[in-house]
């Protein structure tokens, strides 16, 4: 792609779209980034919640951390680290055997470096979207993409029918742009008609989709019987992971001495619930029931889990 007079639309301001937009803009390409959400991050998300007494809490309720496995990515991440956008999470992880009621397989810190966004997982995307040459438009769902043969460009239209402009290239970072799931959520056909690109259609189908619920919890005191900052569940039908969010670097813990945790459901549990619920946004009652189920399972570990001062479930459609 030559930079001269190139105009690119990037759909999605998650980590894929934000990195892509920033790399293109650094090479002089004019980039417009669209995201349905209110801000950047996608599944590298941080959520703000307010307790009944007005206390603000924040949870990384999507990806809890990331690791680096190539030199090229390591170079990019060390640049982010130098800018204060990410930090290493020096945490100890283990596995909790639900049947034996014991932790095992302690993974001492340093085995695999774990990185987190600072002060939240979304900080990297937020910062990349502000770079020179990137125009970010949030709260805009791309509803239609038409290839204009005459002008050799793509014309984008929003879900509510607004013209979003013409672009030489489009980078779509979410398979929703061509998936029937888009129709389930919006009642409209997906933006991109993949019948024109059968090979691409097969590739899209092969991208796995695993549903999951996240459970956000805050406790007035640290969980005394949990010796690690993150653990996977072995032999649990409904829980797969738990992470102590407040132990990450750069997090402000409110109220003092409190601890926040994010638990992740198994895909099997989420599929069962979602099959009953359907593809649309779950009701508050349905989410409250999920929160109750998952918290019961957490308490059943025998780890002396007290009543939380905050509890809420969030549904992730894909993973
Ligand atoms: C609970 C949870 C735990 C996870 N744990 C891990 C982990 O431990 N390790 C790991 O490597 N990964 C993990 N992941 C996966 C990781 O978060 C994702 O792979 C990664 O964040 C995906 O980034 P992305 O930019 O490709 O997509 P996304 O972050 O999904 O971004 C896509 C963006 O596109 C936007 N969008 C879609 N369609 C449109 C449209 N038509 N118009 C406008 N905007 C649109 C969406 O709003 C979204 O913001 C986890 C994910 C979740 C949810």
UniProtKB/TrEMBL annotation:
Superkingdom classification of source: Eukaryota
One Pfam family recorded for the sequence: NAD_binding_8
UniProt name for this protein: Amine oxidase domain-containing protein
Organism ancestry: Eukaryota, Viridiplantae, Streptophyta, Embryophyta, Tracheophyta
